[in-house]
Amino acid sequence: MTRLFKLHFIVLIGLMVSSITVSARGVYQTDEDFLSEVFANSVPKSQVVWLKGEVSQSVSDILGHDYKGLRIRYWRDQNKSVWILEEIGKEQPITFGVVISRQKVEVVKVLAFRESRGDEIRYPAFTQQFEQATLDGNKLDRHIDGISGATLSVWAMTSVVRMALYLDKFTTP
Questions:
Q1: Which of 92, 95, 94 is nearest to 83 (CA)?
Q2: pLDDT in tens, the chain (173 residues)
Q3: How far apart are CA 60 and CA 103, in angstroms?
Q4: How many C-beta atoms lie closer than 10 Å to residue 119's C-beta?
Q5: Torsion of CA 100, 103, 106, 108, to 10 degrees
Q6: Does residue 129 belong to any structural domain of this protein?
Q7: Which of 83, 95, 131, 152 is the Cys-Cys partner for 112 at CB 3.0 to 4.6 Å?
Q8: Is residue 97 in a domain?
Q9: How many domains does the chain have?
Q10: Residue 150, domain extent
């Protein structure tokens, strides 16, 4: 009886620990819902920026590697642009929604997180550090505080924000 109790206890603890590590993963908001929220249900037609030449090189410099696609889709309405971009955290891509207004960050959101840990970057207490950030060269104009245990996720978000600011500046009419 005691062995059976210990076995059940060990299995229960194992299930609890595994459910905690899996809980970080998820789709927090769909791309469509994010766009609808940003543009108050009046989403403009998407546009495309091709990654070639100087743009491709600048994006590679910002990320530290080539971006996986040949083009990036974005949405623009007057002085506001929206970018839905992906970057690898530790091993899996994280999907971010970035809103740029007048070449400053308005909003950054984690739309989908696929890693087992590091999802603390999705909380407003962290993302608000990016509000009103601008580019200074290829760097942000401010220091972004990290999160212990989420370093690669923080780096991914910071890189994507820098990339969105660059692309916004490049595509602004």
A1: 95
A2: 566 556 555 655 655 554 444 457 899 999 999 999 999 999 999 999 999 999 999 999 999 999 988 999 999 998 999 999 999 999 999 999 999 999 999 999 999 999 999 999 999 999 999 999 999 988 999 999 999 999 999 999 999 999 999 999 999 98
A3: 20
A4: 21
A5: 50
A6: yes
A7: 95
A8: yes
A9: 1
A10: 28-171
